[in-house]
Amino acid sequence: MPNPPLKSDPFHLPLVLKFPLSYTTPMPASKTPPPAFNIPSKVLLLSGFFTLCFLVFDSLDSHQHTTAINRFALIPANVLHAPWSLVSYSFLHDGWEHLIFNLAWLVIFGSTIARHLGNVRFFLFFVFCTLSAGGVYVIFHIGSNFPAIGASGATFGMFGALMRFLFPLRGGVLSARPQSLEKTLQNRQILTIIAVIIGIDLLFATVSGVLGSGAIAWEAHIGGFIAGLTCFGWFAPPTRSISGGPGNFNYGEWR
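Above: the chain sequence. Below: its structure as tokens.
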């Protein structure tokens, strides 16, 4: 039997290109000009691994390709027999366009998050968003044999976490420290952005359902986004003030 169509997710959101991705923390004066591309090494490493996995996946013959899908793609009906697929699906991509879109979103959304988190925290956060996105997809498709692949759920988790840094903007740049979840959800501008993102995903789900294509794993997008937004504080390092740390002057709020 031929494989069912993949639930890939080449999702495009022009709105996010308007989001600035720098910090408000003043930089010391330097005679050396800033680099043209200031992408954190953690993001480059993850992007390189995505690309390597894609090149290997793309080089397989049809039999090997089917075997890889059955073993590493997220298939709800098979997830109990292949629990690793709740993470491994994010490293498979259905073509160069799918890969490039997800790499772009990883750089745009993930760079700010990577600068705030350490190496271990960043990769743990990526895995958490991947698991959350995959879990939501499985819940919506219990018993289904339609495989899902792609890192969009994880990159949407980075996007959700980015909501914590968006406001208040100072001089058109992001806040250097994340807002608490309570303050984030009290901001009408952020709530509007969240509503637009979820609305666009639901619109794509409706259109793909009407057309019968089922090509966009919108459930994974929304699941990853909400997980990143609400749970980022679990991974963020404690904010330290000049006077010593939690409870001291200018420490900020507890998460």
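The chain has one domain: 14-20+39-234.
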